[in-house]
Amino acid sequence: MQFVSVTRLKLRSIWKFFAFRKANEASIKALQQSDGLVEAHELMDKGLTFWTLTVWDSQEAMMHFRNSPAHREAMRNLPDWCEEASYHHWVSNADEQVNWEIASAKLLNEGKLSKVRNPSKNQTKGAFPLMRWTKTNRVLKKPK
Q1: I need a surface site. Which of 52, 104, 132, 134 has the fewest CB within 10 A?
Q2: Phi/psi zone of residue 130: left (φ > 0), alpha (ψ -120 to 50 degrees), beta?
C-alpha cells in the first residue's frame, strides 16, 4: 500500500509568483530529504496553476513532510497567494500506476478545498478546469 497526495494551486497574480516560487523551492528541498518519499512530481499548468503529485510509503511519512518548517511556512502564505487551492489523498496498491491523468481526475472529482482569502468563481463553486498542459512535469528526485 502507498499513500498518494495530489494538490492544485492557482496563483491570484503574476506578482505572487516570485514569493511563491522561493517558498516552493524550499519545500521541494525538504520534500527531497523526506524519509518515506517514493516519488514526487510538480507541474506548472496554464494560468499560473501548479500541481504536485507525491507518493509515500505511509500517511505518517507524508504528514511528517507536511509539518516540516519549510512546508508550513509556504502553507501559511497560501491563502494570500492563491485564488484556488485543493488537495486529495488516497491509498493505492503498490502495483497501481499513479500518473497525472489519474491524480487530476481524483482531485477534480473527490478533492477538498483549502481556504483562500480571494477565491475565484471556480473555488467558490468547487469546480476546476481539467489539467491542460503536462509538458512542464518536473520529477523531484531525492539528492544522492
Answers
A1: 132
A2: beta
